[in-house]
Amino acid sequence: MRILIADDHDLLRDSLVAFMQAEGNIDTDTAANLDEACALIDGHYTYDLVLLDYNMPGMNGLEGLKTASDRNGVHRVALMSGEASREVAEQALEMGAIGFIPKTLPAQSLVNAIKFMAMGEKYAPLDFMTAEPEPNNHPLLKSLTDRETQVLQGLTEGKSNKEIARDLELSEPTVKLHVKTLYRKINVSNRTQAALVARDEGLF
Fold first, then answer.
1. Burial readout 111-125 (b: 16 or more C-beta within 10 A, e: otherwise)
2. When you count CB atoms within 10 A of the terminal residue's CB, does the N or C end of the chain come out lower?
């Protein structure tokens, strides 16, 4: 069995590798960003599982999941995150991910989940997928309307104005107006800066 673990946090990545190697009969490769992961996917090995960190460099929200899934020979891609919401997990599964792993899982549960997925079993922890979302009381969000918050989340997930408009059932000009307003409120000048602010503040 061979798996690829892609995460930009060295400690977590190395810990996962150590856990998997302790299981025996599991070969593990690692990457620190999406470009490195794709280079390995395009290399000589066929992976039983590609595990991607939702927030590592290059992911651009769920676009990174699609990018990895579309590589030749890749059939099982899973997402892991310490911050992503249940909605992100649901979207990932709808896009064909074989599973979603919160980084808050105990070590042995995390190892078991990776093994299940590598063998072709879908995995998403029931308690995470059914939990009621906690209200986000971040001060930055208090200045935004609900629509502006939804638009900002769309920007964070790498969506275009057209995609956000479709998802929220709004017109594209209306989304552009929301984007312009939230730029002013969070003191940024473009969508990349807005996404970085949202990520750095752990808004979504």
1. bebbbbbbeeeebbb
2. N
pLDDT confidence of residue 129: 75
- The counts of H helices and E strands in the chain are 11, 5
Q: What are phi and psi of 119, to 5 degrees?
A: -90, 0
How far is Cα 89 from Cα 78, in angstroms, rounded to an integer? 10
Residue 76, token pair as written in the block: 């099982």
Task: Report the half-sphere exposure of 178 (CA within 13 A, side-chain side).
Answer: 23
Using the predicted structure, report yes or no on whether residue 87 has a pLDDT greater than 90.
no
Please give the C-alpha separations between residue 98 and each of 15, 72, 92, 101, 122, in angstroms, as whole numbers: 22, 17, 9, 10, 5
pLDDT above 80: residue 34: yes
Q: Is the pLDDT of residue 188 over 90?
A: yes
Question: Which residues, 6 or more positions from 144, have their beta carbon under 8 angstroms from its beta carbon?
Answer: 152, 182, 185, 186
Decide if 29 contacts 2 (C-beta within 8 A).
yes
Q: Are 68 and 38 in contact (CB under 8 A)?
A: yes
